[in-house]
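Appendix C reproduces, verbatim, an entry submitted by the partner laboratory led by Prof. M.T., so that reviewers can inspect both the input and the predicted structure.
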Amino acid sequence: MKKDLKKLRQARADKAKAGKTKLDQLNALLDKSDATDAEKAQITTLEAEVATPEKEVADLAGEITTGEKVSRGAPLFGTPSLGGRARHTVVNDLNPERTGGFHNLAEFAVSVRNFQVNGQMDPRLGAAPAGFQQNQGPGGEGVLVPLEFREQIWSMVFDDGNLLGFCNPEPTSGNSVGIIKDETTPWGASGVQAEWRAEGTQMAASKAAVTPAIMQLHELYAFVLATQEVLDDAPRLQNRITVQAANAIRWKAFEAVVTGDGNGKPLGFMNSGAMVTVGKEAGQAADTINVPNVLKMYSRLLRQGGRPMWLANSDTLPQLGQLTIGNVPAWLPLNQPLAGAPDGGVFLGRPMIFNEHSSTLGDVGDIMAVDLSGYALATKSGGGIDFASSIHLFFDYNISAFRWIFRLGGQPYLSKPIAPAKGAATKSHFVALEAR
């Protein structure tokens, strides 16, 4: 029969409370130097009574531990008699090979801290598969993090729905990755060529003109401190060490994709030789965007597959929303957003994404036409993350520290804009408007 863990925990709490009351009474009497005969008799009685709830609390703790093991095993093995469901009805079941039996990172972190501070061993830490359990106990180096939770933040950072997800991944198992850059075009004089051939004539061979390049991976970290109050509230901890850490990492990583100088961080496309900057119109007023600006920008965007889009600071919206070409608005909001559609609407037929990486209105980069598939983003293969936690760093503040280290590198595939098949205006995956 399945044990009622809630009732067991409540019973343990009640017994512990009753025992503490009697212990307080006993200590008060023992502190008296001139106890009466009646008080001495009461001391003898209380000493016997204190031992009873102490044993009962220990027995209940053992029952709770057993009940917790059964509860975890029931869903895993599909045992209805133990409170579990049949295997074929289990949905979103925990995979102990990846989670160590924990439901989320917050639950794991709290168990680790309890183990390191006071030696309270969560059975899941000891029973987890090899590679997840503790190293050298409470005084050792720490506790290894289950694979599921190490990859969780990585998945949130590089989700397909955010801007980093649009970049072209270049995974590597080392600290650098070699990429092959092919800057030729189907209409150019070099690279793979297609030719017309008359019957019976020999074909002329062509070969790919590729340039090897090395991208170095750089260290990006998130360092999060959690007070005991936060540790005691698992939902808040889960939000802080997953959602907030992932948001911070994602923002910092894409900021480097846009504006990085290449020194200790990726080379951003705005600082690369591939950037095209379209000039403003003659006599154009400061801090303005007009129809000729955006049409000229769009004409310079290299469109060879990929996912062309617009990036803009929301400062630009009051002006973009009033631009019209003929009687057609240039910007169309999605009044009934579709699943997976950008929340910035559509601009000149392409997705518009308002973001905090783009410059403020009037500066270079306030609005950009880009194809992020033209940016190579080097990452550790398999979502390589170094995760560690420590209670010792800020022990005297009763604060625990959590740290993630990622390694990222990146640069545009193009070293410079390419010449078009016809015309003189060069094109690129990244186009911005001159400062106004």
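The longest strand covers residues 399-412. Additional entries are available on request from the coordinating office.
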